[in-house]
Design a protein that fits this description.
Elements lengths: L2 H32 L10 E3 L4 E3 L22 H18 L5 H26 L4 H26 L3 H22 L12 H24 L31
Antiparallel strand pairs: 1-2
């Protein structure tokens, strides 16, 4: 392997590592966006006072250098970062890293990621209609007022504690429904997105470190993967054959 080919392979590997980090950044950006933390600190946003961008520490080693956030103009950072991944898939196909069906499958997976982001954003931005909330509160209040009169003839003084129990139960269900309306917050009963994203990040970083370690080894006879035409930046990734019941 000559110096030019070695430099090209190192450049391709660096580009692949950059794409993996962007994928991790998409997860962090989605978490902040769903928690309404995007567009103001923390995160990448626009400082209207200083007129510049600021960067949260968790993105310092994930985002491409020079990237600017435009959330203040209506463009979500998760969606913005997917364009980098789409460009990486296109470049990989043009360089012969993988076949067209593989590139198409990666594009489908990227579109699935964008679709999931859109669905979660729809959940967060779609509130319960205010007319429904007002009517619900009124019905519960009227029910609690007239229920004792319907029970007092047969239950006597037991109508008071029974009414209290019934009203407490119904208002508790109403409160639970209000909490479930936005499951992406930071309360204890919300989805622990921070832990999920951080766990994914740690696992991916371990895989990337192992991939880099194996790629730097001189003997790559068992690990080298080269689909066709030239060196692939995916070379060095351990691959395993999945056994089926027919084997």
């Amino acid at each position: 392997m000559d110096k030019d080919e070695s430099a090209t392979r190192l450049s391709d590997r660096a580009e692949t590592e950059r794409a993996v980090k962007i994928l991790m950044a998409i997860l962090f950006a989605t978490k902040n966006h769903l928690r309404a933390e995007w567009g103001a600190f923390p995160g990448v946003g626009f400082d209207t006072a200083a007129g510049n961008q600021f960067l949260h520490a968790e993105y310092s080693d994930l985002l491409p250098s020079g990237v600017m956030g435009y959330d203040h103009r209506g463009l979500g950072i998760p969606l913005q970062l997917t364009f980098f991944i789409e460009q990486y898939i296109k470049n990989g196909y043009q360089r012969g890293w993988y076949h067209a069906p593989q590139a198409s499958q990666m594009t489908v997976q990227l579109n699935t990621l964008v679709d999931a982001y859109g669905r979660m954003e729809t959940i967060r931005l779609t509130p319960v209609p205010i007319a429904h909330l007002i009517h619900e509160k009124q019905v519960l209040a009227l029910f609690g007022m007239f229920l004792p009169f319907a029970m007092v003839t047969e239950m006597g003084w037991w109508a008071i504690p029974l009414t209290t129990f019934v009203v407490f139960t119904l208002y508790g269900i109403d409160g639970i429904a209000g909490q479930l309306e936005d499951p992406f917050g930071s309360n204890r009963n919300d989805i622990n997105m921070a832990a999920i994203v951080e766990d994914i990040r740690s696992e991916i970083l371990v895989l990337v470190d192992e991939w880099k370690r194996v790629g730097e080894q001189k003997d790559e006879s068992q690990w080298f993967m080269e689909p066709y035409g030239g060196g692939s930046p995916l070379a060095g990734i351990p691959t395993f054959r999945v056994m089926s019941f027919d084997d």
